[in-house]
Amino acid sequence: MNDKPLPLEEMNTRSREVFRLVVESYLDTGAPVGSRTLTRAMSEKVSAATVRNVMQDLEYMGLLGSPHISAGRVPTQAGLRLFVDGLMEVSDLTGDDRQKLDATLTGDGDVTSALDRVSAALSGVTRGASVVLTPKTETAAIRQIDFVSLSPERALVVLVFTDGHVENRLFTPPAGLTPSAMREAANMLNATVGGKTLADLAAGVATEIDARRREIDTLASTLVQAGLAAWVQEPGEKTGRLIVRGAGNLLADSDAAVDLERIRTLFDDLERKSDIAEFLDLARTGEGVRIFIGSENKLFSLTGSSLVLSPYMNADRKIVGAIGVIGPTRLNYGRIIPIVDYTAQLIGKLIAERS
Fold it and tell me: Would you tell me which of 281, 284, 300, 320 could form a disulfide with 305, CB atoms 3.0–4.6 Å apart?
């Protein structure tokens, strides 16, 4: 079998039509397609034997496969990729889908709450599982920082971001911490934060402490460094939080026990954030919506799943996160692509307006 299927332009008209009909039928029903079914759909009148010969050629090229000896054909992963890249027609976003997605931006709350709503709506509209990689904390602008003592061994650093959301994290404060040291530390940071990101603060905090050495005591400077370290050095925070909605949609569409087990494996990986940093890397390598079919993305190599993914940007046109839809390889790609693209634009608008 050829490793590289022939480009579409090297296939004759009949082969292209047979190939397109097989793929479209499979994406619609998930079932193998037989030659007799195809003869009724062909634009020219041909025999079932002729169609079978064409299907055999397409199978030899690596574009079609046979699940069973006597069954019809289904597209291979290579066939799906060729179809998506060369034959697929992308539909327009429907007014109903647009309205459901737009409605997610009308609620109150911070960006994280809005992203939760967007993710739920995207799952509902596509009937797949939605994934939203939220902006990592280091790239979000900060409005205010506070320190809260819980006990001699435990304290909170509280960050209020310019988009309104609040996050806090536990850390171990320096021994002998006093209320005045906590106030000094917070005052020093808030005097200089001025919409900076956490990464900006972490990079400049040593210089700032050195410049203001006479104004703050040693405990306060140690507290500042320990508090920021609780954020910057936290394991697993190289990327933002991953929001997953609609896992049940995938389970509902799968009858075979092997499919159910594969999907459970997929979501176990997602919950463990396995390869999640790769989501953003994948989104950064290309413009607009990208499609990963089956093993093209190592996260899904054992699940028979596809990912339709798009980055989204902040007001500075910097990619800060990604949004996508996970589904079986027989996703309705032509419908899903404009939905994911529009949702990514909505999120970018949301972040720009609330920053």
Answer: 300
Rounded to the nearest 10 degrees, how much is the dihedral formed by the CA atoms of 132, 138, 139, 145? 110
Model confidence, pTM: 0.71
Q: Alpha helix (H) ranges present in 164-321?
A: 179-193, 198-211, 218-232, 247-252, 257-271, 277-284
- Render pLDDT for 53-76 as a digit per residue (tens, 0 to 9): 999 999 999 999 988 766 789 999
Please write the tens of the pLDDT for every residue from 272-292.
554 555 655 666 666 688 888
Q: Does domain 138-232 have CATH number 3.30.390.60?
A: yes
The tokens 């496969």 sit on which residue?
65
Domain 95-136+238-354 sits in CATH 3.30.450.40? yes
Q: What is the mean pLDDT of residues 155-169?
A: 74
Supply the angle between the helices 179-193 and 198-211 in degrees, to the nearest 10.
120
β pairing state of 305-313 and 154-161: unpaired
